[in-house]
From TrEMBL:
One of its GO terms (molecular function) is prephenate dehydratase activity. This is Prephenate dehydratase. It comes from the Bacteria. It holds the Pfam family PDT. One of its GO terms (cellular component) is cytoplasm. NCBIfam families: PRK11898.1 (NF008865). It comes from Enterococcus caccae ATCC BAA-1240.
Length: 282
């Protein structure tokens, strides 16, 4: 089976994907939309993309594309602990404090702000498509005083020197990844919980619309683990709500809650009803 992932190799997404699919053919994509389109167009059977990080919150590119552009289901979730490393070419390992530019994915840069402010307050920060891309670029330009923030695997893959270990601002830093392409996906990782994710919109100008929508879950004692708003990209001030539901009640009760929202004039898009698979010790 072919499984797409946000690449290149040695990125956090690659690490999560190869742990979940150790015996399958992995295909790297340069962006989240490209990976999702790979599933849509049948280039790969499944795709793995990041959806949320402990520090930086939701990956809006993933959320918006899945809401606006496709109906591909979420079949599983992988949770990966994130440890950010600062790495330089071996030529610069003794002069790493002279680094003038730090490259990484925007999420990784945001997750390492305290370290950057302490050691490199004047350094230029440059966003790259992925952490592994940043590591690859640094390896290809050993003559430059540049560094990358990336996972340990990137340093091993691109033969870089780690000069700052576990530099993320929060010690317990995790990223959620969604596996797309099928309604149910079995992974060789023990599952911990079960979740239902939906996108909800309510009629314009309905007084207390969000309160009414949430009440259908409240009086049924349905536990919501997350709710956030995203622009509908139609008119300023119009939003859809992304809601994660802990699946602890009978499916019929959940179905009745969603039907009640529809009867009030709301719309419900189900992203997936899936198991959560935490990865430990990676």
């Amino acid at each position: 089976m072919k499984v797409g992932f946000l690449g290149p190799e040695a990125s956090f997404t690659h690490n999560a994907t190869k742990t979940a699919f150790p015996d399958d053919e992995l295909v790297s994509y340069h962006s989240i939309p490209a990976c999702i389109k790979g599933v849509e167009f049948g280039e790969v059977e499944l795709g793995v993309v990041p959806i949320e990080n402990t520090i930086e919150g939701s990956v809006n590119t993933t959320v918006d594309y899945l809401f606006h552009q496709t109906t591909i289901p979420v079949g599983a979730e992988i949770v990966l602990p994130i440890y950010q490393q600062l790495m330089v070419s071996k030529n610069n390992r003794d002069t790493w404090l002279e680094t003038t530019k730090i490259l990484s994915h925007p999420q990784a840069l945001a997750q390492s702000q305290e370290f950057i402010r302490r050691y490199f307050p004047m350094a230029e920060l440059e966003s790259t498509p992925s952490t592994a891309y940043a590591a690859s670029f640094v390896a290809s330009h050993p003559e430059q005083k540049i560094a990358a923030i990336a996972p340990k695997l990137s340093a091993e893959t691109y033969e870089l020197e780690i000069v700052g270990r576990d530099i993320q601002d929060v010690a317990i830093n995790q990223t959620r990844f969604w596996v797309l392409g099928a309604e149910k996906i079995d992974l060789p990782i023990k599952s911990a919980d079960h979740k239902l994710t939906i996108a909800l919109t309510m009629p314009n100008n309905m007084p207390g619309a969000l309160h009414k929508a949430l009440s259908v879950f409240s009086w049924r004692d349905i536990d919501l683990s997350k709710i956030e708003s995203r622009p509908l990209k139609t008119t300023l001030g119009e939003y859809f709500f992304l809601i994660d539901i802990n699946v602890q009640k009978p499916q019929k009760l959940l179905d009745n809650a969603l039907e009640e929202i529809r009867l009030m004039g709301g719309t419900v898009k189900i992203f997936g009803n899936y198991k959560i698979h935490p990865i430990n010790g990676v």
